[in-house]
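Colleagues,

Please find the record for the two-part complex below.
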Amino acid sequence: ETGVTQTPRHLVMGMTNKKSLKCEQHLGHNAMYWYKQSAKKPLELMFVYNFKEQTENNSVPSRFSPECPNSSHLFLHLHTLQPEDSALYLCASSRDMYNEQFFGPGTRLTVL
Amino acid sequence: RKEVEQDPGPFNVPEGATVAFNCTYSNSASQSFFWYRQDCRKEPKLLMSVYSSGNEDGRFTAQLNRASQYISLLIRDSKLSDSATYLCVADNNAGNMLTFGGGTRLMVKP
């Protein structure tokens, strides 16, 4: 299944590094999402974009910075992360915000 | 109260058993409901939508009870491969965005 792709699949970074996560959807959807899922914990919604406009920022620390250049692409820029930020970062898209969401495979991030 | 609430489990059942999960939602105006399945260290995948009239797909049946504000998932003849976490989803009607429950873990044993 290649509807929603994410790169990289795995990332190890130090606390002083800057990296970016990329998500691309090939489904013609209008809404895209970033979620964080820590080990054995529920999904935490981070950001929502609808028609390229950010509609939700769920009290996420500023060391996470999203970017949505067009309806098909979503980035999450990371800088000066903390070890507790280690988690699975999932991207999802949906036709509209009340339709079912389709998830990418996620980026497993480890912050040393 | 959480917007979408589930019993985290785990539910441990033998192969062949029938198991049911409930999920409560807080917004009486919610219109869209779904069940997702998430395997360990994988992304959630859509299992089925939940319609007002209910929905059946093979061994899986989903139902909606608006009066009591819960949705249910029934799995008949459980298989080992059904072992996963099942996520309940409802729209929160504030921007019509979907809200995910914390998930119910199912373990099917031989």
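The mean pLDDT of chain B is 93.

Comments are welcome before we finalize the supplementary table.
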